[in-house]
Amino acid sequence: MTIPAKRTSRRCLAGALLVAGLAASFGAAADSVALRHVRVIDGTGSASRENSTILIENERIAAVGPDAQVTLPEGARELDLSGRSVLPGLISNHSHLGMTDGTGAGAQNYNRGNIERQLRQFQRYGVTTVTSLGLNGPLFQRLRAEAHSGIGVGADLFGADRGIGVPEGAPPMNVAPEQLYRPATEEEARAAVREMAARKPDLIKIWVDDFNHTLSYKMKPEIYTAVIDESHAHGLRVAAHVYYLDDAKKLIAAGADILAHGVRDLPVDNELIEAIKATGAWYISTLDLDEAFYVFATQPEWTQTPFFRQALQPALAAQLDDPAWRRHTLADPKKLAIWEQGVKTNQANLKRLVEAGAKVGFGTDSGATPLRIPGFAEHRELQLAVDAGLTPLQAIALATGNAAALLGLDDRGVIAPGKRADLLVVAGDPSQTIADSQKIEAVWQQGREVSGPVVP
Ligand SMILES: [Zn+2]
C-alpha cells in the first residue's frame, strides 16, 4: 500500500491535485483516505483511544474520532489498520544536516545529495520534521523552501542558519566559514545576528562552553548577551548549546530561549527550574548524544536489530563491527565514566523538569557526528526518556506536540482536525511499550503515504 515518494512523481502529484480540485468542485472525495480501526496516540499526552478513524483529506486531517462516529465522504479510500497505532510524525528540535557521510565529517558533506539522503532517512524512520540547529551553509535556504512547499525530498526542514561559536573554541567542527560565525567582539556578534536575520532563520544557535574541558575558551558572557539582545531585537529566539548547570543558569538569566542540550554535570536545582519556568524557556535533553559515544562499542542486543542496522551506511556498519574500533572507543575508562554519568544525570534532570512542569522539547543532536544516527537516534531518545521515568505517553508528547510548540508550529505535532497529516503508523502499542515506536509500518507526510516499513 506504499506510494513511493519519488521526485519523478511530482508531475503526477500535480496532476492528482488538479483532479482532486475538479472532483472537489463536484462534491466527490477523490483524495479522502480513512485510516480505520486504529489506536490514536494524539501527541498531547492524553490517553490513547482505541477503535478510532482518522480521515485524511488532501494534506490535512479532516476528522478523527471513534470508528462509528466519523462519517466518510462518498468515495473515500478505507484502510483497515486494526491492531496498529497511529501517532503524529516525530519532530526533532535538535539535529544537524550535511555534517556527516559514512564515518566521516566535514564541510564537503554539506551538499544537496547528502542532505536529501539524510532527510529521506529521517522520514523513513518517522521523523517528518527536522530542525537543523546550526552549521548550515547557503544551500540551506533553498532546501528549506523546497521542503516547506512540499516539493522537497524527505522530512520537512527548519533550522538555525549558521550559528555562532567561539574563536578557537566551540564547536570543534570542521566546517566552512560560510557555515559558522566565530565573533571576537560584541559588535561582530551583533553583525552576525543581523546577517542571519536577513535570511530569516527559524532560530539563532550559540555554542558557549568548552566541550567538557576539551577546549581552551568558552564564549564570553558579553558575547552571548549581545547575541541574545540583537536576536530578540529582530524577533528571533536563541537556542544555546549547554552542558554545565552554571552556564544554563547564566544563559537563562541573559534571556536565552532554548537550552538545546540537557544539563549533564550536576542535578538541576530549584533555582534553574524556577528560572526556566518564569521565563518560559524550553529545554531539550538530547539523552542519546552521550550514550552514542559508547553504546555502539558496548553493543547491547538492540544494536544487532535490523531496525538499527538499516540506519547505518555501509562504512559506518563496518566500523561498528570492527573489534579494534570498539576497543579504542572503550579504551579510556575515565571518558566512559563521564559519558555514562552524563546520560544518568541528563535522565534524572529530564524527569525532574517534566515533573516540575517546565516546557520540554525533543532532540538528539542526530547528524552532528556519524554516531548520532538520523532517525534511529530519535527512537532511542524515546526509549531513554522512558527509562528516565517518563511514561511512554509523556515521551511521545515531547517528540510531537511539545516539539511542534517549541518551533511555534500550530499546524502539526498532534492528531486533530485541521492539522497536517504527518503520521507514523506502527504495529503494537507504543503508549504502553515505547519500543513499539520502532515497529514502523508506514509514514505519512502531508496526507501521502511516503514510506513503508523500515525493516521490510
Ligand atoms: Zn547540535
Please provide a written account of the structure.
By secondary structure, the protein is α/β, with parallel strands linked by helices. The chain has 2 domains: 7-88 and 415-451, Urease, subunit C, domain 1; 90-406, TIM Barrel. The chain is built from 15 helices and 18 strands. It has helices spanning 10-25, 112-124, 139-149, 186-198, 221-233, 245-254, 270-279, 287-292, 295-298, 306-309, 314-321, 323-329, 333-356, 376-387, 392-406, and strands spanning 32-40, 49-57, 60-66, 77-80, 84-88, 90-95, 100-101, 104-105, 127-132, 156-159, 204-207, 238-241, 258-259, 282-283, 359-360, 423-427, 440-445, 448-451. Strands 1, 2, 3, 4, 5, 16, 17 and 18 form an 8-stranded mixed beta sheet that branches. A hairpin with a 2-residue loop joins strand 2 (49-57) and strand 3. Helix 4 runs parallel beside helix 5 (221-233). The longest helix has 24 residues, at 333-356. The two termini are 13 Å apart. The structure holds zinc ion (ZN). Zinc ion (ZN) is lined by residues 94, 96, 133, 365, 368. Residues 94, 96, 133, 365, 368 line the site of zinc ion.
